[in-house]
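Our consortium's second objective concerns turning raw sequence data into structural hypotheses that experimental partners can test. To show how far this objective has progressed, the report includes one record in full. It was chosen at random from the queue rather than selected for favorable results. The single chain below, 636 residues long, was entered without modification.
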Amino acid sequence: MAMITSRCADRRRSAFHRPMPHGVENLRHPSFLDRHAQPVSTPRDSTLDRRRFLALLGLAAAAPRTADALELTDASRLITDNRADGVRLLNQQGDFIGARGAYYGPPVPFAQLPKHLVEALVASEDRRFYEHWGLDPRAMARAVWSTITGRTQGGSTLTQQTIKEIYLKEHSPIIRKLLEEPVLAPILELNLSKEDILFVYLNRVFFGGSAYGIEAAARVYFNKYARNLGLLESAMMVGLLPAPNRFNPHRNFEVSRDRGFRVIEQMVDAGYLTRRVADRAKAQGVTVAASRSAWGGVYPRSTQIGWFARWAENEASANSTVTGRKGTRTITTTLDLRIQAAAERHLEQGLRQNARARQIEEGAVVVMRYDGAVVALVGGRDYRLKEFDHATQARRQPGSIAKLFVYLAALQEGSTPETKVSDAALTLGGRPVRNFDNRYLGDITLAEALEKSSNTAAVRLAVQNISEVRTAIERLNVARAVAGEAGDLALGTYEARLVDLTAAFASVANRGRMVVPYAVLRAQDSEGTETLTRTPPARSDIRQVMPPQHAELMRQMLAGVVQRGTGRAADPGAWAAGKTGTTTANRDAWFIGFTEQYVAGVWLGNSDSRPMLGVSGGGLPAQIWRAVMTDAGNAP
């Protein structure tokens, strides 16, 4: 049975000096007297009995239908009730960084809505709005007939549209227009003023581009607050309503502007504008903001945040109950906007300058703190063109990055940075193992072999410790059940994700303690109740995945790579450690490492694994890493 809560304000009742009929009195919400009354308009005596009659008749008709509880007594509650599912994302300082799914802006009080916006809405959508009692019989007949005959024609009043937007969008159009809207529209008019209904409608209706409500739409299309919309901008907003995505100014500005012109003419016909004012409004220049909508979301700071936003949403959803994922959720993340901007800027600059000549299609960057909190993530060249995330989804061969696990296994088995290993030419399984520079130095120390990124030395170490190498890869959550022989493990021919490899280096930076990358600090449901809160574990509770002394030795050897070895191009001018990686035919190029504050990984390559031209981990990836980490070190 449908549940409907309703009320009539005491001051409305006293205005007519007569009691409410018993049937309507029972509609009053039991908690109404505890609420702050909404502003109401004074109805006409001649329509009151008709409204009551229709409300009672409608309730009797609607009673057999199954429906969610309907709240028709509180304008503010109506704005938030039964919203489409969506996620608001905040950075660690609480700044809004994006929305996925339905994007709702903060409600704009009626008094702050531009007068010309309200007048444009009434003139275009419901000319008799201030005269009717929620229904316009002639317009309803046209709308029902158009639905029956399969044509598209409006006819619902703004009151009916408000009811539909909140509660009836998924219902059968015939049932909705013949039964439900005629039932509920008069009840809504009994309970709310005309201004309240406009307040609810403008803060709930869909404007396209994932934007619901005028505040979200004003920010998406014009990058301004709704209260600052000009006349032509307001007319364009109203012009969107019949077909929000088709008339989207980001897709077709001329069509959207012409729709705005049409609305202005309707305002003239309705007597809201003079011809002179209308012509002046049409001559106004309009600047549409650059689109910040991409792949299921709106990202006002940068569409490149979309990869991080989607990853954070997935993390929050995986750790929340189903009920905690309904309505508009709020997720506070670990994102640092300054470091994110640096990662985006330096990756884009590196690709812009080198992509064509060196045949590079894609790149990715991850920056995290020592505890795994991801402060920046860029999953590709352009999120608007490709949603696939090369930082958290792509599995690529790590190349010489995999030597981290080979040397950790050697330390585990008792070697030290000064232990000697042969860098001489090597044949394994009938195939020669070659060094990148085709130089072979004979016996050298482990530290020198890592700095040189010696393939022959790494393969020899892996042959001696193959079981321990597999264990290190699995213990650090880089891959499970790694296949291949010693040469495959040493030269990184298996597949791994950038975010996992970066976390493995973070475990080394973190003195051997386990690091699991994360993006969510807390999540709240649509009612503001926290459904997920991250509590940092005590250091003693964090699993030790390698002895602290081995992690320290590894830190020293990786620092040598940056100071004297293949990673010199990554040197940020302060202490740093890291490792280069390049796969066969330059299909993948990596640099992953850490400073005293942050751990970061950079990958360059092509989605289809086409070879790049002369791109190695010690070149462009190391240069991008250095630029990002230099800026990160300067961030507060």
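The partners drew two points from this record. Residues 6-68 have pLDDT under 50 and may be disordered. The CA atoms of residues 468 and 593 lie 22 Å apart. Both points have been shared with the crystallography group to help prioritize constructs.
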